[in-house]
Amino acid sequence: MLAVGAFMLFAAFIAFNKVYDIASPSTVVQSAAWFGVGDDKFEPVKVQTTEQTLSSNINWSIAIFVLLVVLVIANVFDISGLAARLSGKENLSGNNVNKYIMIIFLILGFIGVYWEFSHHGKYTLLRNSSSEHGVEYDSMFNVTLILTMIVFVITQALLFWFSFKYAKSPNRKAVYHAHNNKLEVFWTLIPAIVLTFLVLKGHQTWRAITYNADKSKSQNIEIFAYQFGWKARYAGADKILGAADYKYISGANPLGIAVKSEVEKLKLELDTAIMNDRKALKDLNSSLSQLRIQLELYKGLADRTNVVITDKEIARIVSGEVKDELEESIRRKSKQLERMKAIEDNKTVFATMFNNAADDDVISTEIHLIENRPVTFIFRSRDIIHSAFLPYFRVQMNVVPGMMTQFTFTPTKSTTKIRSEKNDNTFDYYLYCNKICGTSHYNMKIKVIIESESAYNTWMQSQKTAFGKEAAPMAVPVSLPSDTTQMRLDSLPVNKLQRLTSR
Amino acid sequence: MSTATIQTGHANHDAHEHQEPSFVRKYIFSTDHKMISKQFLITGIIMGCLGMFMSVLFRLQLAWPDQSFGFMETILGTWAKDGKLDPNFYMALVTIHGTIMVFYVLTAGLSGTFSNLLIPLQVGARDMASPFMNMLSYWFFFISSVTLLSSFFIETGPASSGWTVYPPLSALPKAMPGSGLGTTLWLLAIVFFIVSSLLGGINYISTILNMRTKGMSMNRMPLTLWAFFFTAILGVLSFPVLLGGALFLIFDRSFGTSFYLSDIYLQGIGALTNVGGSPILYQHLFWFLGHPEVYIILLPALGITSEVIATNARKPIFGYTAMVISLMAIAFLSFIVWGHHMFITGMNPFLGTVFMYVTLIIAVPSAVKTFNYIATLWKGNIRFTPAMLFAIGLVSFFISGGLTGIYLGNSALDINLHDTYFVVAHFHLVMGSAAIFGMMSGIYHWFPRMFGKMMNNTLGYFHFWFTFIAAYMVFFPMHFMGLAGVPRRYYQFTLIPEFGVWMDVNVLITVSAIIGALAQILFLYNFFYSIFKGKKAVQNPWESNTLEWTAPVKHLHGNWPGAIPTVYRGAYEYSRPDREEDFYPQHIPGNDNEHVDDHGYILPTPVRKEIPVAEKPATVFFTSFSRLFSFKRA
Amino acid sequence: MANSIQIPNNQKQVPVINPALFTVWLLIVASIMLFAAFCSAYIVHQTDGQLNNNWKEFALPLEFWLSGGIVILTSVFIEWAFQAAKKDNINILPALFTITMILALAFCLSQWFGIQEMISKGLFFRNENSDEISSSFVYVFVGVHVVHIFFGICLLFAGIFKSAKLKIHKKNLLFITICKTYWHFLGILWLYLLLFLYFAK
Lengths: 503, 634, 201
Description:
Largest sheet of chain B: 2 strands, antiparallel
Largest interface: A-B, 153 and 157 residues
CATH class of chain B: Mainly Alpha
Oligomer: heterotrimer
CATH architecture of the largest domain in chain A: Sandwich
CATH class of the largest domain in chain A: Mainly Beta
Number of helices of chain A: 14
Number of strands of chain A: 12
Strand order of the largest sheet of chain B: 1-2
């Protein structure tokens, strides 16, 4: 048993060491060496916060706590086990030790919970809402928090207290008490009543956030998500977000806005690409022999990387993978062209989509919003599901390809205000991606700036339109309720088009 | 009566012409449920160790994102160039960790092990309804495990779009490396797994309903059996739906259909031809399985806990009927709440309200279960075996994790908590840690039954306390990260200045996770050492009531050498006042004067009055509540 | 010995259904859930597609209705076999099993022709136009159902051998009951799918 104790001590010591290292960068090297790593590559990440020293001390105390617990268990066990062996009675020492650890755990656990709330609780966003509905959200949260914490404390206390109190004693028999219907009815009804209250309040909050949002008065902004970034599109001087479609996306037109000149360019591009693909398909054999000649050349060199690459390329051609890819590419592009043509052929749809509304749209890499003015985000995804997450505004909505989603809210706290509140001049709101979306998921964000109307107008004037003729739009009066959106128009959706435009 | 004849046949076979089966028939392609349960357990433990090791790897990345770990490069090669985890591989680790833990450890390893071991032994049957299907169930599970793990050895790496593998990310091989061959293997593994679960689940239901011994009416069954029964029903009803969802995904990936795909432009490829599909449909199909799956994981653990707590508190489980009804309620409700995983997918807000209502109702049966566990401890005579400690730990986790479910089930609160660390903390406590603790409790409790040896108690105590404290230290601080809006599945937080304050918390969590992982070495040592060198177990080491302790410890096909014992009473007759010993096994014939009430309990009407009540303030306090409803006395 | 157990009067006798037959019923339940998932997916896509005008309605090929007729015939023959076995009329069993199996193969053949008919009409499994998603579903329904039929044919094949060895008779009806239950289920399932595809518009 001593060996076990020593082993756990060692584990705790390492833990202790690691924590200590983070607190003081000078010893970082040791811990890196413990993991068998060169020390030269390591640069400690130091994010300057006021809580830094405090929280480092906290980790110290946690490590000491672990150490103490190990010591207590190890010692008590060895002594009591020995004593029991000497006396020759029924060995209840393990039972008694566990009984006391139960009560110690209860007390230390509650201290830990309190400590968590007092130290980490302040980093949370409670009481710190930056949007109108966030206040309601927070009150819902606090009610739930209070109720669940009461239940938490009572049930955990009873669980561990009973474990302590009724631990085995040799001269006692447990009470035969199989059920008590009244008691069971009682503790079925109480949770039911509490939950009914929570459900009703939750429903109220949910309704306030989703059902009752007045979309007619809000400014529509399109938030466009792609692997791995965000773009915001503003309506421009005509206050109408022009139509857009994934089929129109090209290098020059990353959002696929319905602008005639761009679409014509894209058609040309596609035509050329198809021609190139066909040519490559025809020349497959000759390129194969060329690659083989190259391979012989590379084999003479000391550097093997080219050999590997060329080998792979040859294998891809031989297995027919390249041929399949090229054929697939031709098929895909022809289909795209065909569908673009179908839209052109349908006069009604074409006229509604290409009504020049998109010409003055502004595409931005920052989201600027006006303080205390309702805004509706209309989300569109280029490739896969993303999720737009604005924790400070209590806003989150999935961004689904092929499906328009939206969220209406009113930001109430400007960036300057939150900076002064947080006492941090570099702070900025961000919109994060919160649905796993690939390699750079962790860095898919866009800055959100909440400002006054005049600051917003100044910023807007400095922006350029996407493909329009004039350099900058006029100052944008956003309060007009006539903002209309036309988006995501499929090949022949006349009825849907009517639904969209009649709104 | 065909079962009876079959059983007689078995008995003859075992008694007269029993011969030692070949090694392969006995240990590998065995049709004996006890051997199959051991196979499930050992495979589950191996998968569990792998899953845990993966979690340590990505926790190291989160705690020290800019540090390089030489050993990683040694193990992982190009996936950790210069000792730093590749972002894609981080995703793969997260995905496979989730898949392994949810399906391979907590579904197959927990439910597979203990359903196989306990169902025939506790209902009093010679073996499962179909031993052959049972064997197939294990081997499909084994093939599935191998398929999943083989994806680590391919160039593009394993599936890495999260354990839920949402399309379009998982459906487009070009969207990320893991969505290539890795996801194909993942889907294949899951199809095998579903076949395994269906074969197993069908067998469990069939055995429980049809092969109970004389006197084992449904209302005398131990709660473990009830839990396994509902688990199997959940599996049979929900796994086919996942199979449907997975088939659609396979068609989309490999055959060019577009059930889940629509309007997609991929960088470097261009506009895809797929139109008309709906990615949200996959989420509906997935979570229609996914939510019952949570209870497929949790219910067996709760069943095991009921048995262990009652046995070790030497008290009847409090409110047997209420326990069964709440199991049933949880099982039923789990089928109509899947939408709470999708509150923010842009679904109709009205549906959000409906799903919130039904989701929060689940808290009621869960609360009843918790209170009943606590009431079982009250005035018991508690013996802290390691199994009992783990059972108490489960109840503690069930409370902590269950309460945060009330936040997440609320559609309004979910807006800001969805997919943050709050969710991670919630489900790791309530279904991860709680179910693992249930599994550990079961292993410690039934180890003598499985291997005929005892495990070392002291090592068990160390194992429990280190794991318990470490688990709380890992998952409790995560709630606060979630409340600060820290998203899950982020490779590192250094690029976002706002999250800098959580760096030291990440370190704390990682250190605790490493301690927790190291503590499992104690368990592994104890487990494997005790199999070979452990103290020999007596017939009924925990003085338990249930039938499995009447069968000989010796490995015997057919379980009982002679007749199967008959059952005379419910499973929880502990500390009966009219008995000398504090237990009263199910198979011992009782006196004729006892009155059996409608749920298998002997009504101690004359005895109950002798129970010393109203002595201590606590007693007065508790009974006062029940008197509230008793108008006669007032 | 199990048969020497004294059963006390107050102990309830546990009802016995044959576990193997019960297992088949559970498999049927699982299969129903699978098709329920497919059907709900169909309805979801249909509603979605009709809103977006990219859902194509088309008449099912006649071959599928023909196979509906064949599947009814197989059920008739397997039921006949069951009744014969019940009356210990075991000489005709191999013949009845064989006829049922030939009919089952004919069913597969008519499904194949049905698929060919769909391909010739330009209704593919692979999605190239938006409207074809409705036809993809038909392929899935047919394909997954035929996989079920395959297991059924294996059962019938075993049945031929068993009945030829005179192992199926009045006192050993288990196997033929399983066959019968499963085939009736397959028949009802296919008829249901046909009606579902016909009426879900």
